[in-house]
Amino acid sequence: MNPKRRILLINKKFQFKVAFFVVSWMLAFMAFFPTIVKGVIDSLIQNISRKLDAETLKAISMAQDEVSRLQSDIERTLLIFLILMTFVMFLIALFLSHRIAGPVYRVQSALTRWSKGTVEQNIKLRQYDHFKELADAYNVAAAEMHRVRAKNQEIGQKLERLSQELEPRHKTQIQDVIGELQWPGKKL
Q1: Cα 13 to Cα 177: distance, rounded to the nearest angstrom
Q2: HSE-up of 113 (CA within 13 Å, CB side)?
Q3: Which of 116, 91, 86 minimizes the C-alpha distance to 26?
Q4: What does the alpha-carbon distance between residue 76 and residue 164 come to, in Å, rounded to a whole number?
């Protein structure tokens, strides 16, 4: 099985949910950013104003329109930055959720096949995927299931040989026990 996945959206509902969650929190934190920048600019202007003489203060007040325009430019730039960062964070969240959704999908698919009687020997995940411990636990359980299945098959074969030597009444009872040893969908 090729461990490299080519499809980014393994579980669209889950991955978009994670992406929107991450972007929502990022937007919530970034909403305060323009306010902080505005406060820093206002604080700088006040500090500079205290150190200047009356004539310079008069010139500064006359340039208030220029300062307002500069402040609007900064706010517009921050808004553009916020929109770009939102898009980038959305893509990053999709990529990170892919590292979660892919392994969960593989384990879920393997468990579904297991419930139908096909136990895969090994689930392999990519190097940076999450939930490697879950895949390892599945692999241990699958190996144990193969061991138990082989042992059951061995016991079933022994019982089959013994039943050939018994009376028909006991033979039926042993055939029933052999049937109980069989895995759903698989004959020994």
Answers
A1: 46
A2: 13
A3: 86
A4: 89
Write down the domain spans for the chain. Answer: 8-115, 117-188
pTM of the model: 0.54
- Taking the C-alpha atoms of residue 89 and residue 96, their distance in angstroms, rounded to an integer, is 10
**pLDDT per residue of the chain (188 residues) written in tens, 0 to 9:** 445 556 777 778 888 888 888 888 888 877 777 777 777 777 877 777 676 676 776 666 666 667 677 778 877 887 888 888 888 888 888 888 888 888 888 888 888 988 888 887 788 888 878 888 888 888 998 888 888 888 888 887 887 777 777 777 677 777 777 777 665 555 54
Collapsing DSSP to helix, strand or coil, 126 comes out as coil
CB atoms within 10 A of CB 109: 12
Read off the tokens for 84: 């770009």
Residue 119: how many other CB atoms lie within 10 Å: 20
Helix axes 64-115, 54-62, angle to 10 degrees: 60
